[in-house]
Write a structure and sequence with these properties.
The chain is of the alpha/beta class and about 220 residues long. The chain has helices at about 30, 35-40, 45-60, 75-85, 100-115, 150-160, 175-185, 205; strands spanning about 65, 70, 90-95, 115-120, 165-170, 190. It has two domains: about 30-75, no CATH class; about 75-195, 3-Layer(aba) Sandwich (Rossmann fold), CATH 3.40.50.1860. It has eight helices and six strands, in the order H-H-H-E-E-H-E-H-E-H-E-H-E-H. The strands form two sheets. It has a four-stranded parallel sheet, with helices on both faces. Helix 6 runs parallel beside helix 7.
């Protein structure tokens, strides 16, 4: 029987209340008190505390309290700009996928109009052939043709060199985004992620996983 932390399967939702006595045995409140205390100590660092405080304020400001109920008011692009201003950031970096080049131009224009200095780096920066990391010709998107690899480490290093205050990941592929996060230095948020099927809206796969995309719920065994 699994005994790890399983918040996603919790039916009590005690973390949104103060009734932790009703928590399941797999609740982090019961199993990970030391980890929670360690995390809380990080918020005592002034720069971390301020970052978290502004993020919470930003969350609250994304709703209007109307007579008919709470109503969302800001799309994520607006949130990113507002949060960056709250933090006093001036120089923003965008690490984008070449497949979203036009959208990256629009994003840059929006942020520049809001007063930010924006630098951006494409995923294929450096035009390094995929063969250099061991990709075979039949493993390319277009076999038989020159194909540069995505270069998220270079994206991160370049934005580090530009000394950006805050970075935005925009459409990077699974795995490439992970490498970017591993090597980037400035705080980073994600505006969009790569989903070729659902127009970069991956939760659509979850919404349709019991209907049109029920194949997502198939039973697979991990390789031993």
């Amino acid at each position: 029987m699994k005994t790890g932390i399983m918040c996603a399967k919790c039916t009590k939702v005690v973390c949104s209340t103060e009734k932790f006595r009703n928590a399941l045995d797999t609740c982090p409140y019961k199993m990970k008190q030391d980890a929670i205390k360690q995390a809380l100590s990080e918020y005592e660092k002034p720069e971390i505390k301020e970052f978290a405080r502004q993020a919470s304020i930003q969350e609250a400001e994304c709703y209007l309290r109307l007579p008919e109920g709470m109503t969302p008011r800001h799309p994520r692009v607006e949130e990113v700009a507002q949060f960056a201003k709250k933090m006093g950031y001036r120089k923003l970096g965008i690490a984008f996928c070449d497949g979203l080049r036009e959208e990256a131009k629009i994003l840059t224009d929006i942020l520049e109009r809001r007063g930010f200095d924006v630098v951006s780096v494409c995923c294929q920066v450096g035009s390094v052939p995929k063969e250099s990391i061991g990709v075979q010709d039949n493993q390319k998107v277009n076999p038989g043709r020159y194909e540069p690899m995505c270069n998220p480490i270079a994206q991160a290093v370049i934005l580090n060199d530009e000394v950006t205050d805050f970075n935005i990941v925009f459409g990077l592929c699974v795995g490439h985004d992970s490498l970017f996060f591993k090597y980037v230095q400035a705080p980073t948020t994600t505006l969009a992620v790569k989903d070729r099927v659902f127009g970069h809206n991956p939760v659509a796969g979850l919404y349709t996983s019991r209907s049109y995309y029920r194949k997502l719920r198939r039973l697979d065994e991990l390789d031993s």
